[in-house]
Amino acid sequence: MRTYVGVIALSFRDYQAYRTNMLLRVVTGLIGVMLQAVVWSAIYARRSVLGGFTMTEAVTYVIVSQALMRATVVRSGLELTKKFRSGEITKDLCLPVDLQAYLGAKDLGRSLSASLFVSVPMFLISWVAFRITVPASAGTWCVFLLAWLLGVVLQLLLGFLAGVAGIYTQYGWGTDKLKDAIVLFFSGAIVPLDFFPPGLERLARALPFQSAYYLPLSIYVGKTSLPQALPVLGLQAFWCITLLLLSRVAWTIARRRLSLFGG
Amino acid sequence: MGEAVVVNNLRKVYRVRKLVGKWPADLLSFRWTEVPALQQVSFSMNSGEAVAYVGPNGAGKSTTIKILAGVLRPTEGSVRVFGHDPFRYRIHNSHNIGVVFGQRTQLWWELPVIDSYRMIAKIYGVPRSDLDKRLEMAVDLLELEKLLHRPARTLSLGEKMRAELGSVLLHGPRLLLLDEPTLGVDLSGKRRIRQFLAHLKKIGVTVFLATHDLGDIESTCDRLIMVHQGRIVLDGMVSELLASFGHDIEVRFADDRVEGRSLSDALGLEVSGANGRFVIHGKGTEPPVSVVERLFSLGKVVDISVKAPDLEFVIGSIYDRLSGGQSSCGHTSG
Ligand SMILES: Nc1ncnc2c1ncn2[C@@H]1O[C@H](COP(=O)(O)OP(=O)(O)OP(=O)(O)O)[C@@H](O)[C@H]1O
Ligand SMILES: [Mg+2]
């Protein structure tokens, strides 16, 4: 455990080496925020409530979502496929670490770095510029952050699974992008699930991806009240555990495959 | 003491995907072929032993090392490293071993070497005091002080190799698995690396060294295992192997009419050369002094020199014999 905490810390520091990059991310992030603000103002031009969201709620949802999207850096999947192809994985397997936990810890460090230095500035600027709402109670903040963290873990697990799938398709970039597209769509990162057509909404709610954005964000904007939040956290935890088990099985099979085809 | 490594009837085949037909049919129909890399390999190593692992390209050396490191699972047979199955207990095993692959580096490309070392120490959970001690030892033996603060990417091939070797002792491994650690290293670099290995051996580390550089063996290893086409063809002490090959004796007779054939008959040894200048190829069974004495009795000798067999000659002639005997039976190398 100490090992992985150390890896998180190192990767947290390492990610800050790219300072200009961080600044650029804040700028491009804000452009995305602006775009969302313009689009949603237009959508709400002739009505006051849509899908149960007021304009302020919807704009807050999508802008905070933009900030959260910049906060999760998932590279482990792509890294895994690349290491597999280049044979670098041989060296990593000589380290006394579980590769999934190791790659995950690296991503967690990066994500913490990005949260602090990209998302927080984005959030603060948007708060001033677009007057988004902020949860009033400390309790809501805590539950939101917890839900968000579970969402990050879920994305790490999905990233790793995509990486393992990339080993099989021999086209890691493709599987990773496919995963990104699915997550972007079904997680409610761009549009709250409430706005989906009923059939699609039901599907999205049955899938694990809503954990990444929709569930934490509905806590943030108050669509999920505190008492309702407990089963939501439970659902997120359920998906995390399921995907964890799945990824362990997938990884065991992938190691056999590596063994068969050589390092 | 105890046994560091026990390998029993180890067999390893790789699977290779073969494309059949032309596009687009090849997208659907694969065929698998199996490449045997190791067959019936058995050997064991005691703690503290230093063993050289040699063999021609494609013999199976790297495969063996990857299996001992727990990266690859044997197709058949059993492998124990300090009593454990390295594939099954990979993480446990990795605390005990230090692995160097000549062509790969564990160092972070962008980070100064010292930062990589700290990172590695953190991953292995090495206490601060141990780290300082081992770091000092590595810096001393491999002369790393000038390299420590440079990013790995700026190091030359040989420098990188030295830095890499330094990284491998930070967690205090009991067994070193080295795959061509002097690849691309210059003479003085090799000397440092050999010094380093000799020191580790002295403090009781078991060394398993796969190499094509026979100098590495002479300076470090007592025992030699030779693998050829996935089978072990030789396993013994280096000194005994050398002794089993005779000395070469170069001789010049005053009389240049002395004939090679009669010389050969008289000595009962193989002889090459002509016109009074010959090389007598001794056998390991007769000491060279006695051959020299017999030569003196055969004519007036004006010049004579005795050459002890070196490892290069010995291993070279074994390789020749191996490839002459039964060459390439469906064997690929690379
Ligand atoms: N990933 C792989 N897929 C298929 N065959 C492989 C693979 N890796 C090695 N081989 C084959 O297995 C055999 C043993 O290879 P190995 O790399 O262990 O040899 P080696 O003794 O290390 O050779 P060298 O001295 O060239 O490094 C060779 O025939 C090689 O072609
Ligand atoms: Mg090799």
Description of the structure:
The complex is a heterodimer of chains A (263) and B (334). Helix content of chain A is 77%, strand content 2%. Chain A has helices spanning 2-15, 19-43, 55-71, 76-86, 89-92, 99-130, 138-169, 172-186, 198-206, 214-220, 226-261; strands at residues 49-50, 53-54. Chain A has one domain. Chain A has eleven helices and two strands. Chain A has a two-stranded antiparallel ribbon with strand order 1-2. Helix content of chain B is 34%, strand content 30%. In chain B, helix 6 links the parallel strand 6 (175-179) and strand 7. The chains are: A mainly alpha (263), B alpha/beta (334). Bound molecules: adenosine-5'-triphosphate and magnesium ion.
Layout of strands and helices, then pairs:
The complex is a heterodimer of chains A (263) and B (334).
Chain A lengths: L1 H14 L3 H25 L5 E2 L2 E2 H17 L4 H11 L2 H4 L6 H32 L7 H32 L2 H15 L11 H9 L7 H7 L5 H36 L2
Antiparallel strand pairs in A: 1-2
Helix pairs in contact in A: 1-6, 2-3, 2-6, 3-6, 4-6, 4-7, 6-7, 7-8, 7-10, 7-11
Chain B lengths: L2 E17 L10 E17 L3 E5 L6 H8 L7 E6 L8 H7 E5 L11 H12 L3 H15 L14 H11 L7 E5 L7 H16 L3 E5 L3 H7 L2 E6 L2 E7 H7 E9 L6 H8 L2 E5 L2 E7 L4 H9 L4 E7 L3 H15 L9
Parallel strand pairs in B: 3-7, 3-8, 5-6, 6-7
Antiparallel strand pairs in B: 1-2, 1-4, 8-9, 10-12, 10-13, 11-12
Magnesium ion binds next to helix 1 of chain B.
